[in-house]
Structure formats: C-alpha cells, structure tokens
Write a structure and sequence with these properties.
By secondary structure, the chain is an alpha+beta fold. It folds into three domains: 30 residues; 89 residues, ANL, C-terminal domain (GMP Synthetase, Chain A, domain 3), CATH 3.30.300.30; 32 residues, no CATH class. It has three helices and nine strands; from the N terminus they run ααββββββββαβ. A three-stranded mixed beta sheet has the order 1-8-9, with helices on one face. A two-stranded antiparallel ribbon has the order 2-7. α3 links the parallel β8 and β9.
Amino acid sequence: MFERLSVSQRKLLSWLGLLAAVGIGLLLIQSPPLQPTRTDGSSSQSSSALPSVDQGHGRTYAAQLEERLSNALAQIAGVGPVEVFVTLERSSHIVIAESVTEEDRGGETRQTRTPVILRASNQASEMPLILETYEPQLRGVLIVAAGADNPHIRYQILRAAQTVLQLPAYKIEVLAKSKEKR
C-alpha cells in the first residue's frame, strides 16, 4: 500500500501516525487530581510497614520510621521499652520529566532542558511531571531495648527489624537497655 504513495505523502503519513500515537499516549497517562496535601493527620494512613516518603524531608522520614519501629518492637513478648536510631544513606529525591531541545548555531550545539509542566483543567495550579520517586536509603539501625539481654529476645528483635526494614543483619545492631534506665 505504501509503494503507491509519493515520498512526501509517506512522510506526511508517518508524521500523522506519530502524532496519533503521542495523542493516545497522553490520553492514557492521566495526571492525578491536583489537590493540596493535608498535614492535619486526617488523611488515611497506609497499611504498609514503612512510612510514606515526605518529599524533601529525610529527617521526618527517619523520625516516623523510628517511632513506628519502636512501637512495633515494644509489642513483642518479653521486650520492654525500645529506642530506635536510624541512619540514612541519602535522602529522598524525585526525577522530573524534562524536554531537551538542541540548537545548532555556527557549529556549536546548545542543549536546553526545561521541565514538563502539568496544568489542572479546573485549577490554575501547575506542577512538574514526576517520573520516579526514590525513598531514602537506610544505612543502619541501632535498637536499644529492655529485655534484649536475653539472646532469644534479641534474635526476635533482629529478625523483626530485618523483615520490616528489608536490611541485612550486619546493618542492624540490637543492644540491651541498661538496668537503671528501665
């Protein structure tokens, strides 16, 4: 069928096909509704073991993780009060979609990168198109718990922390709380 078309007609047809594919792709990728995030705690909590990433606030992520892990570990039979200290390898970061344009002026090639911006149809707000979101990586965890002087309890604490954090055992240290501070 393409054999009977001229070169310019083939070129036009291929451009129309590309334009149709891009249009269908844009229709399939629906942007999430742009609503302000609520910080009053009225949003529903997820049931996952790790807290959600608070973008740009690595310390908040670590504090949430420490609190939830210490609450969970304190529920283990034979374990008393627990303190958890989390060290982060790096903080969270996001990858934003960019459009790259290249200009060729007198033998010099110049690249210009601009972020892809999404606009809500019913609001005047804009936000960049986020391709990927990376959670902070954990470097290590220190757990100080009452009852960890018992080897069986210490092992249970270690296994629970390994399961929740998905860290190898050498990155988790479990120590017994001193007797006078219980």
